[in-house]
Predict the structure.
Amino acid sequence: MWIRKKHSWDIPESEVTDYKVYLNRRQFINGAAGLAAASAMPLSFAAKAPTGESFDNLGKSSFSTDEKLTTYESITTYNNFYEFGTDKESPSALAADFPDRSEPWIVTIDGECDKPGKYDYNELIQAQSLEERIYRLRCVEGWSMVIPWVGFPLAELLKQAQPNSKAKFVEFTTLYDPEQMPGQRRRVLNWPYLEGLRIDEAIHPLTLLAVGLYGREMPGQNGAPIRLVVPWKYGFKSIKSIVRIRFVEEMPLTAWVQANAGEYGFYSNVNPDVNHPRWSQRRERRIGEFLKRETLMFNGYGEEVAALYNGMDLKRYF
Amino acid sequence: MRKHVAGLKILVFSISLLPLFWLSYALISDQLGANPIEAITRDTGVWALRFIMVTLFISPLRKLTGINEFIRFRRMLGLFAFFYASLHMLLYLGLDQFFDLHEIWLDIVKRPFITIGFISFILLIPLTITSTDKMIKRLGGRRWKKLHYLIYLIVVLSCVHFYMLVKQDKTEPLIYLLIAILLLGFRVFSQRRRHQVAGS
Ligand code: HEM
């Protein structure tokens, strides 16, 4: 069952001014009296306003950046989520009610481990202590955002499954359900979307399973109800709407590698020195900013993750 | 129609400016989404391509309807194609690369889709320069015509430029490419028939 937390419109003061500014502006546009009226607002507003339940008592993280947050509106209307169409606007238009919250969402964990299992989303978020992590997100297309995720380290969950010595990689799978995900009715990618990490990348403390953003549960277009966030890799590695996590011995053949192995590698670490044929990766446009900025190696997380790749030729293993 | 050409020209001119007005308005009123610079770069590119196609459509339209006056709009439409292509390129040079010549050069040689877009833009320049009556006279109708066949190469290159920059869902550029090929096919077909008629 989908347990709903109490509906609360007040946001902890420490969080995210942008979100308030955003709400206020919308309020002003709609001429509404107070935040309480939000639920009664016209559709055009409802589609853009945060509607998810809010999470209480979120922990803080030393991994968070203090850079200026990308607005809630941008984060939730400029999305790459091909399961809901290939342009940036389709996901927010089509995923507002995704997933069907009257159905349970089960994440299966299996493969090379001693304790495989099925986890209900609601039990999962009750069992884990959720924290806020403000990460940079760098898309392979040359743009970036700063997003306040809510989630818990993937390692916490993987640990419970007790991977065995054959577990060299972790493979992730998105839901396959063309009924709910109209983009899957066309074979733009080899559905279901598949991603993977090396096991040491997967248990790295930066690697997050995210269940929300801006203090609220994950909007459909951002990969509800649960998604991966790997901040030092290009955005497409951070697979959305996960239903399966599998420990495997061989390197998984990920969706984008299947689509075009010459352009997308398994590792796909953010690297300003390795160009993509379509996009120079040296610079990026931070959404909301006019001038482009330099792209940082490992998206600025080198101090934490560079050791994972000691001795590896990152131009070859891109 | 002949009597109305002057008035219709003003109408076509105004309609051709609508994309520009719409884009400017949308930009100013913040309706272009989270990444407005990308949006205007793309939209001007698409409009350049559309105007190239409309220009190419004039000749078949004239033949199919028998209304010769359509030809009187072609130059203007062609110049609008150049206008939108120039805007597109300027937006790229200015807002994507901030006129950093070194970066731009690297882009042109390293990113095939930019290389091809750049070639199509360069090829548009001689067509634009030779679009005046004076130039047509100076070149002579035959040579002028030959030169302006370049537009078929340009339209195909532009579609390839579009095709290459799309990450995965190639439907839209393929539709444009299909139209380009149909237009090209029509040209080849009617040319042949003319030759046959002339030869018999
Ligand atoms: C006749 C000339 C040209 C035509 C008809 C043309 C057409 C197009 C079209 C149709 C698009 C795709 C828009 C979309 O995705 O919806 C595009 C994108 C683009 N074009 Fe061109 N183009 C031309 C020349 C150029 C030149 C000379 C450059 C740069 C030197 C250029 C740079 C770009 C860039 C960077 C994009 C991608 C924008 C983005 O994804 O952010 N184009 N162009």
Remarks:
- Chain A has two domains: 15-49, 57-309.
